[in-house]
């Protein structure tokens, strides 16, 4: 039996087994095995000779102090510093030396928490990357506000130099000119690099192909970060409504590699979405490699290309960190068979059961009307992946799936923070992943209302 035939016959009868395998593989597998402290895979940065851990720690989704259900504290630092310290300690102990943050992460408190955790270790033990996130108009574009953000990063990170500094979320000519050219900030940052306060200067890309070509030729950049994963490798990033950007991950990689620009990877798991794929895809992965976690497939795909110097992952829980460290200690590149499973069969399943491409980056938060946008999207994706998205009323499984979707929604998100509370103010836009957030919220609200109205 070939893989395509297997896909066709996998049905609801195997869903329970597949789902239990998915949960145990992600959460328990790394905890059951000894994780070496001296086997981390490293890549040498060709621009400066730095030996970077191939797995980098993205400080975007840091653990928070538990709050009452539905409680929203948009202006309060509710990060759990003790838990963050434990994660950082484990990461450094097991060879991770790249820590990536930004002024806008974790409601603006990520840099401070990152600095507090890392400053407890010798400076030579880690490389810090952060960003100029001056993307909020109109005051955010000013030189004064940009400089305030820049200098504040040094203070919060408790450092006197920054190893890797990004022009953050660069995507189109108009915004780039306002944020970095017209206010003189690019010239300022180049001078800062010359003076040694910035060791390497680069940019993170969210845009179209023609602008990537322009940016990669504008300056002798030390590095560039792109979104790369097996789902977007050949088709680009999904937009709401089924459209895509005009540049898939493969083309982005090839443009930068042709210019010898070292590549950093973001979104290897699409914000965690590829660590919980549809159960039919998970069955195929388990057939090919029964001991590998779902997440490890995505990491191994992203890290297997030669010009990649580090792959960033936002890690909130120790179980996730342990599993990811084990994947890179050492990294075993994908076999050709495994690569084809991802690019052919898993992508085919993903197109049939399309998720909302949310990475939980929190750029849309806080919502002024209290919606928990990322959790709403995560619940939708979870139901889709687990076969709990009720569509066919003639299906024997319809009533169970309907109940699972509605009850799961109320458990995941307080009723006062659900999609039907969206008024379409559009303050959640633009989304770095090109999601039409108000449109998706309306679609989820309409679908949930139709299910609730059924007798």
Question: Which helices and strands occur, and which strands form pairs?
Answer:
Layout: H1 3-9, H2 15-27, H3 29-32, E1 42-44, E2 51-53, E3 55-58, H4 81-93, E4 98-100, H5 110-118, E5 127-132, H6 143-157, E6 162-170, H7 173-181, H8 185-194, E7 198-205, H9 209-218, E8 223-227, H10 249-258, E9 263-266, H11 279-288, H12 294-303, E10 308-314, H13 318-327, H14 336-352, H15 373-385, H16 398-412, H17 437-452
Parallel strand pairs: 3-4, 3-10, 4-5, 5-6, 6-7, 7-8, 8-9, 9-10
Antiparallel strand pairs: 1-2
In words, what does this structure look like?
This protein is α/β, with parallel strands linked by helices and 455 residues long. The chain folds into two domains: 350 residues, NADP-dependent oxidoreductase domain (TIM Barrel, Alpha-Beta Barrel); 80 residues, no CATH class. It is 42% helix and 11% strand. The protein has an eight-stranded parallel barrel with strand order 3-4-5-6-7-8-9-10, surrounded by five helices. Strands 1-2 form a two-stranded antiparallel ribbon. A hairpin with a 6-residue loop joins β1 and β2. α11 runs antiparallel to α14 and α15 packs antiparallel against α16. The longest helix has 17 residues. It is globular. It starts with a helix and ends with a helix.
Offer a few descriptive terms.
two-stranded antiparallel sheet; 455 residues; eight-stranded parallel β-barrel; disordered N terminus; alpha/beta; TIM Barrel; 2 domains; 10 strands
């Amino acid at each position: 039996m070939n893989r395509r035939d297997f896909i066709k016959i996998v049905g609801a009868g195997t869903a329970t087994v597949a789902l239990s395998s998915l949960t145990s593989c992600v959460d328990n597998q790394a905890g059951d095995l000894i994780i070496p402290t001296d086997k981390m895979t490293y890549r040498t940065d060709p621009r400066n000779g730095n030996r970077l851990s191939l797995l980098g720690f993205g400080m975007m989704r840091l653990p928070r102090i538990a709050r009452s259900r539905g409680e929203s504290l948009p202006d309060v630092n509710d990060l759990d510093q003790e838990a963050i310290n434990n994660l950082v300690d484990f990461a450094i102990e097991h060879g991770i030396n790249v820590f990536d943050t930004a002024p806008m992460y974790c409601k603006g408190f990520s840099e401070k928490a990152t600095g507090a955790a890392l400053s407890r270790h010798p400076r030579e033990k880690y490389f810090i990357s952060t960003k100029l996130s001056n993307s909020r108009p109109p005051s955010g574009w000013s030189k004064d506000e940009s400089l305030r953000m820049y200098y504040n990063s040094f203070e919060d990170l408790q450092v006197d130099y920054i190893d890797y500094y990004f022009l953050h979320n660069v995507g189109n000519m108009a915004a780039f000119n306002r944020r970095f050219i017209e206010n003189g900030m690019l010239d300022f940052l180049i001078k800062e690099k010359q003076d040694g306060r910035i060791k390497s200067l680069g940019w993170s890309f969210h845009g179209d192909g023609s602008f990537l070509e322009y940016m990669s030729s504008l300056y002798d950049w030390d590095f560039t970060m792109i979104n790369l994963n097996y789902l977007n490798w050949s088709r680009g990033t999904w937009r709401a409504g089924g459209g895509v950007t005009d540049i898939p991950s493969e083309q982005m990689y090839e443009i930068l590699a042709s210019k010898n620009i070292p590549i950093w990877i973001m979104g290897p798991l699409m914000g965690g979405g590829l660590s919980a794929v549809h159960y039919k895809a998970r069955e195929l992965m388990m057939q090919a490699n029964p001991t590998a976690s779902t997440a490890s497939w995505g990491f191994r795909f992203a890290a297997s290309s030669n010009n990649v110097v580090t792959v960033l992952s936002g890690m909130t829980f120790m179980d996730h960190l342990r599993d990811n460290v084990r994947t890179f200690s050492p990294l075993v590149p994908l076999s050709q068979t495994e690569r084809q499973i991802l690019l052919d069969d898993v992508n085919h399943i993903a197109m049939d059961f399309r998720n909302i491409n949310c990475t939980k980056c929190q750029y849309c938060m806080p919502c002024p009307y209290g919606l928990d946008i990322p959790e709403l999207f995560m619940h939708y994706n979870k139901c889709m992946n687990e076969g709990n998205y009720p569509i066919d009323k003639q299906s024997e499984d319809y009533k169970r799936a309907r109940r699972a979707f509605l009850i799961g929604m109320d458990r995941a998100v307080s009723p006062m923070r659900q999609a039907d509370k969206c008024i379409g103010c559009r303050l959640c836009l633009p989304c770095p992943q090109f999601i039409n957030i108000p449109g998706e919220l309306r679609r989820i609200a309409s679908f949930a209302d139709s299910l609730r109205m059924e007798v």
